[in-house]
Amino acid sequence: MKVYVPLKEKKNPGPTMWVAKVGYDSNVAFYAISDDMDELHESINEKAKEYYPGLLDLEKSYVKVRKARLGEVDLPENLVNSATRKIEEKDYEDVKIPASILVPLELELVPVVNFDPEDMDPEFNRFVEPRNILSKREIEYLNGLNGKTELTLTAKDDNLVWVSKTNGETIDFDPFTGKRLVKKLTN
Q1: Residue 62 phi/psi, 5° resolution?
Q2: pLDDT one-digit tens code per residue, 50-80
Q3: Domain count, the chain
Q4: Is 13 helix (H, G, I), strand (E, B) or coil?
Q5: Spatial separation of the C-alpha atoms in residues 38 and 43, rounded to whole Å
């Protein structure tokens, strides 16, 4: 698993990478990083398809791209798995997502790890914001859905919504809390 560490140019002139922030309206879904613009586009499309299907088709979706000096760190999977045992679960109301699921997912969707925010380019620090749109996997976990459920992000009444279609039944979920929406929203 690759993560990237911001480098202060004066101290360590590392490689320049392309960093894309992808989201909806003012909300953040994920980041993609590459040293090649074509690979960056490919990474954006792959992550959107796997974790946020439908997002890139929405009118208010965005992709913001900038360059940054980043060092690449390759974390062995067994190290990540070992570290997750010491981290608390994340609590969403009455459902807890284990760190063993959440940490690798977070590192995949926000692969920028900053050990010293004071030492980072302030512009880049403002660019990298916490992710607040729950991914498809998180929605599935929080609602006990199996991987065969079709989940798609869409906009209804100008609001971002996860829509689940299973056996002809449509259920809407809040993309920030994962809760099932009782009020029916319309396209």
Answers
A1: -145, 155
A2: 999 999 999 999 999 999 888 888 877 777 6
A3: 1
A4: coil
A5: 9
- In sequence order, which residues have a C-beta less than 8 Å from that of residue 90 and are 6 or more positions away? 96, 97, 99, 102
Residues 6+ apart with CB under 8 A from 38: none
Can you give the residue range of the structural domain that contains 80? 2-132
CA atoms within 13 A on the CB side of 173: 26
Domain contains 181: no
Backbone angles phi, psi at 135, to 5 degrees: -80, 170
Cross-strand partners of 171: 164
Distance CA 106, CA 19 (A): 16
Nearest C-alpha neighbor of 165 from the set 183, 149, 179: 149
Instruction: Decide: 68 and 58 in contact? Cβ < 8 Å.
Output: no
Smallest CA-to-CA distance from 70 within 31, 19, 140 is with: 19
Q: Quick one: DSSP state of residue 47?
A: H
pTM of the model: 0.87
**Phi and psi based region of residue 111 (left: phi greater than 0; alpha: psi -120 to 50; beta: remaining):** alpha
In a domain, 80, yes or no: yes
Kindly report, residue by residue over 103-124, the tens digit of the pLDDT. Answer: 888 889 988 877 666 666 777 8
